[in-house]
Amino acid sequence: MPEPVIELELVSKEFPADPPVLAIDEISIDVRQGDYLAIVGPSGSGKSTLLNVLGLLDRPTSGSYRLDGTETTALRDGARTRLRGDRIGFVFQSFHLLAHRSVVENVMLAEVYGAHPRKNRRERALEALDRVGLSHRTGFTPDRLSGGERQRAAIARALMGGPSLLLCDEPTGNLDSRNTGAVLALFDDLRAQGLTIVVITHENEVSRRAGRRVRITDGVLSEDS
Amino acid sequence: MKIRDLWTEALAGLLARPVRAALTTLGTVLGITTLVVTLGVAATAGNQIVGRFDELVATAVTVEVPEQKNAPLVSWDAVSRVTRLRGVTSAAAVAETKDSANLSVRSNDLIDPTRVTAQTLSVLASTTDLPQAARGRMVSGRFFDAGHVRRQDRVAVIGDRAAKLLGVGSLKRAPAIFIGKHAYTVIGILGELRRERNLSMAVMIPPSTGRQFGLRDVTRVLINTSLGAADLVSRQAPTALSPGNQDLLQVIAPPSPIRARDKAQDDVNALFLILGLVSLVVGAVGIANVTLVTVMERVSEIGLRRSLGAARRHIAAQFLLESTLTGLTGGVIGASLGVVTVVAVSAAKQWTPLLDVRLALAAPLAGAVVGLLAGLYPALRAARMEPVDALR
User: Fold this and answer.
1) Are residues B157 and B275 in the same domain?
2) Looking at the domain assignment, is residue B17 inside a domain?
3) ipTM score here?
4) Ranges for the MacB-like periplasmic core domain (chain B) (predicted)?
């Protein structure tokens, strides 16, 4: 059986307000290496909070979260940042590409922080761009790319440094159906290569392609059949 | 994060908005330019004032000789005594009394009761080196020499203004003047005096003929020294002139040139320094403002970098380096403009440009420090952002 990448145990996140808002409520889930998991749910259901917790961008109020076997909830800020940089590749709905840098420079940015060597960084970035089928656009700035190409560039950046987990937040939210198809085909390829993918989406087409689906409603997680 | 990566990211961050970067730099450019120009021009102008001061006063030593009833304190060979001193470039001994300072001098023997024909001029006896000692020039004719002195010739040299008053123009026909009842032949006109300017209204006669006006003893010795020698000469001259009675002589020495220079420059510098610093503070506020706006605009970039593994210190370092580079660039351009302006102003005024090389080197550094300080708060704001909030 593949090793678990994500182990969530009774994880809750409460936001201080009057009354306090319980965004996610005692969520427990395991995601193993090579899994392709879709988390679906309506707006305000707690999807983004769960993604932030999984991406080590936010701390849960209670519960335990192990990433690649490392218990993360007690880690200090610096250690969480290092773990995030080393193990997680993010794909955002709005791509988050730096407008004034070329595609290859945007991809190289993923190895600027952390202990990655400078040597051959460009070659590794070009390799990542090749994996997503963007070898012909490496010198372009993002404004000259189509939406689908931008998202593929962002995926190439997420793949740099060999993460154990690709965490995607509505990756096709800004794409038309053709580009959505291309990105989802890419996810299929990556999964076939053994990458663990967690996608948060409210689009049925995206969740259908995933091997496993969970639904989150009012902060409570349930397996979706 | 490696230093080279930090450098690359900061530079790329700046160059992403070149126009804004240039405009932000402008504040520091103006501040540093003002600082360098004000300090440079102040130093140059200050040096100019002191330079003139030096030339006219700092090398002039005067020894006043009080009148003595018995033997004179200083004899007429005073010049040879003082010129032996190291640093003395020229000297002259002069005899002038209260009575001789107001003598009636006429250019002819006629007495016209309807007109004022006589001028009240100062008559003094001097040694033959007076033109050099008074830093003047013979406008016409010549000064009397050792021969005139030895032969007790009744010759006189008159100052240029005295010549005008007396109506003496050309010396070709050997004009005479009458000092009281005594006729003297005018052999020269002394003018363009840069020291002892009152000599332009005086009549100078050889010491050997001055006795009839009571000009027997030396009352003053004028000494010129080379630059820097005045202090030493003014201490040695009394002993050289009158060994044993040196304490009776009164030496008028120039003020210390170093102190004069420092004081003049301190006054000018303090004022301009404040001006320059104010400009620099304005520049710093400009950088701080723009960096803060930039941070607010780049919130999503900060979020992205945090998601890619950037620690808070990496974010802070990048923004600090960006603002420091802005300041440094402003400093380099400002220092260059400042130096060029100082040289241009000096050229226009025909001054010798004077600029402390340390100032030219420290100015870019000051720009960098200004940028660093101005970037502190924005960098802190950027570092404090929570990645969740920044990515929202």
Assistant:
1) no
2) yes
3) 0.93
4) 22-223
Residue B203 clears pLDDT 80, i.e. is over it: yes
Residue B10 to residue B27: CA distance in whole angstroms:
20
Q: Is residue B315 located within the same domain as residue B193?
A: no
Q: Which domains does chain A have, with CATH numbers?
A: 4-94+162-223 (3.40.50.300)
**DSSP secondary structure of A50-75:** HHHHHTTSS--SEEEEEETTEE-TT-
Residues of chain B with C-beta less than 8 angstroms from the C-beta of A85: 308-310
The answer on pLDDT for B258 being more than 60 is: no
Residues A163 and B175: their CA atoms lie apart, in Å, by 113
pLDDT in tens, A31-48: 999 999 999 988 889 998
User: Chain A partners of B5 at a C-beta cutoff of 8 Å?
Assistant: 112, 118
The structure's pTM equals: 0.68
Q: Which domain does B179 fall in, by range?
A: 66-248
Query: Which residues share a beta bridge with A167?
Result: A90, A198
User: Is B180 inside a domain boundary?
Assistant: yes
Verify whether the Cβ–Cβ distance A112 to B388 is below 8 Å.
Answer: no
Q: Which two tokens stand for residue B123?
A: 């008559």
B78 and B188 belong to one structural domain: yes
Q: What is the pLDDT of residue B48?
A: 66
Strands (E), A78-130: 88-91
Q: How far is B315 from chain A (nearest CA, A)?
A: 11
Of all residues in chain B, the one with the smallest CA distance to A76 is: B311
* Partner A, chain B 274-313, Cβ-Cβ below 8 Å: 300-301, 303-312
Same domain, B75 and B113: yes
- B12 touching A (Cβ < 8 Å): yes
Pair (B84, B217) in one structural domain: yes
Kindly tell me if the per-residue pLDDT of A149 is higher than 70: yes
Q: What is the pLDDT of residue B354?
A: 81
Q: How confident is the model at residue B349 (pLDDT cuts 50, 70, 90)?
A: confident
What phi-psi label fits residue B87: left (phi over 0), alpha (psi between -120 and 50 degrees) or beta?
A: left
**pLDDT interval class at B51 (50, 70, 90):** low
Domain finish residue from B211, B228, B248: B248
Count: domains in chain B = 2
Q: Is the pLDDT of residue B156 over 70?
A: yes
Asked if residue B307 is part of any domain, the answer here is yes
Among B99-103, B170-174, B210-214, B380-384, which range has the highest average pLDDT? B380-384
Residue B188 forms part of a structural domain: yes
Helices (H), B54-193: 78-83, 130-133, 146-151, 160-166
